[in-house]
Design goal:
Length: about 350
Amino acid sequence: MTHSIAIIGASGYTGAELIRLLATHPSFEIKALAANSKAGQSLAQVFPHLRHLDLPDLVTWEQIDFAGIDLCFCALPHKTSQEVISQLPKSVKIVDLSADFRLRDPADYEKWYGNAHVAVETQAEAVYGLTEFYRDQIKGARLVAGTGCNAATGQYILRPLISGGLIDLDEIILDLQCGVSGAGRSLKENLLHAELSEGTNAYAVGGTHRHLGEFDQEFSALAGRPVEIQFTPHLGPFNRGILATAYLKGDPQAIHAALTTAYADESFVEVLPFGETPSTHHVRGSNFCHLGVSGDRRPGRAIVVAALDNLCKGSSGQALQNANLMLGEAETAGLMLAPCFP
């Protein structure tokens, strides 16, 4: 069975990644591409690397006839996304890649994103989109809220360890580097080549990064009490990829065993042999997440490193993985592309 797909926000990086992945999907067909700022242009004009695909020209989202659309990916910025999604037909399934529906409490959304939520009723039906942990809820959902890319990376490390009671919940440090594509495609002075290349810098220091809202929500629910981690992201001079290092108080061998067991049957999360650590080189352009565990010179301390592609497993690949579940397709459909190396 062929499913008709629309993408709103098709001119951004996550939109382009969705198109790239959907191009090889056996049963999804792109019927509409919307990008209000690029309406009237062909896909080749906006993304020359996709010119080989026979796809419709870009339109405004208001011009899409949703009567024939089974599922819509919404890859708009936060705040804009909730305004658009609240107007879409209830018959259309939606995977949202923005931050607008990730936080269950509207007060938390206002705290972290600085504006009141304008689609509270729609927000109430959203299912959090970390596929490996919300699979059953995602299958029956109309609206799935994709996670933040940083939030996904940290959760792949920490969720099984918090659930298993294997680490000190008050001694969690997460240090993360993300490629510049994680900041989106809009022109920003600090992202100019001369400003970014040949160096790296921390940002949102001191517990201010918005993805902490997701960490607080998910980890506190798992633990049954408030959990607040220390988290510092860094902007790296590379295009795509996330490398996260967690410093934990717990037995490293037990941590490795728990992660190995937790992900034993997962198609996209691989735990490396004890002592090996992953690289962003080995997941680039793919829907895979690699985890590595090492001990420390201090007994009872562990280091866990995670690598994934922020545009794929951290966003668009995750979105497609969820869409497969929502439409009854194989979860891996369109997603088994090998990483691009070197």
